Amino acid sequence: MTQTLVAPLAETSAPPAVRVQRQTTSGIVAMALGVVALLVIASLPAWASQGMIRDAVELCCYIVVAQMWNLLAGYAGLVSVGPQAFLGIAAYAMFVMAQLWGINPFAAVVLAMVAPALLAVCAYGLLHRLDGPYFAIGTWVVAEVMRLATSIFDYVNAGAGISLRVMGGFSPAERNIGLSLLCALMLLVTIGGSYLLLRSRYGLALIAMRDNPVAAKSQGVNVGRLRFLIWVAAAVGTGLAGAIYFMAQLRVTPTAAYDPKWASIAIFIVMVGGLGSIEGVLIGALIYFFADRWFAQFGATYLVVLGLLTLFMALFARGGVWGLICKVVDAPWFPTRRVLLEDRR
After folding, report:
1. Domain boundaries, the chain
2. CB 90, CB 112: distance < 8 Å
3. Which helix (H) or strand (E) holds 332?
C-alpha cells in the first residue's frame, strides 16, 4: 500500500498593515504660514502704507494669474499665450457693472466672473480642435480679437478706456479694506482651491493626463471634459485677478487690459519657479516681483535678461527653482503625493 505523504502547509506571515500618508510636517508648517499670510494681507489697511497695499495687490494678482496658467500648462497640457483675454474681459465687465450700471464695485468683482466663464466656453468650442502650438496661437488670436473689439466699442468709451469714478464714494480706508479682503479671498479660492483639487481624485486624473493623455484615457479618465473644466476654471481665476488689479488702478484701457505682458509674466513665473507645482509659482512670483522693482529701470536690457533666464531654466532646469530645491531636501509645502507607510501600531 502506497503511503501518501502530505507536506504541511508552510506558515506564512500576514502582510504588514500599511497606511497612506498624505500630509507632511513641512506641509503643516506651510499651511500655518499660509493662514498667517492671509491674515496679514487682510489686515494691511490697519498698519501698511498706501504704496505697500498697492504692491501687495499686484503681487497677489501675479500669483493668481501664474497659478491659473500653471494649471493649464502644467497639468492639463494646454499652453496658452492669451490669458489676458480673460483678465481684460473680467476687468471691463466689472467697470461696466460698477460705473455704468451702478452696482456696488466690490460686488461687481464677483458678478463679473460670468464674463470670462462665458468667453472661455465659447472660445473652447473653437480652440479644442487645435493642439500644441496651434492651440497657443489660437489663444493669442482670441485675446487680440477681444482687444480690437473693445477698442471700437463705444459703450465702453472705445480706446480711451473707463475710469472707476464710482470709487470716489468710498473713503481711502474703505477702499483699502475692500481690496485687502478681496486679495485674501482670491488667494484662498485660487491657491487653496488648486491644492484641494490636486489632492482629490481629479488631481490624480490631472497628473495622469499630464504624463500621458493616451494612457490616462485608457484608464477611464475623460481627458476632454477634464481639460474643458480646467480651462474654464483657469479663465475665471485669471479674470478675478484682472478685476481686482484694475480696481486698484481705478482705470482700464484696452491696451492695458489685453496687454500681452500678462502672458509673459505668467510664463516667466512658472518656468523659473517650477512648472507643475504651487510652490514654484510662489517662488517665481516673488522673483519676478522683486526683479521688476529693482531692475525695471534698465528697460530692454532687463527684459532680455528675464527672457534668457526663462530659456536657461527651460533647457537645463525644467523643474525650476523649486525642482532644484527638491533635489536637496524633500519638504513639500503643498504635498499631493500618497505615500504608503508600514503601520507599526
Report:
1. 21-259
2. yes
3. none
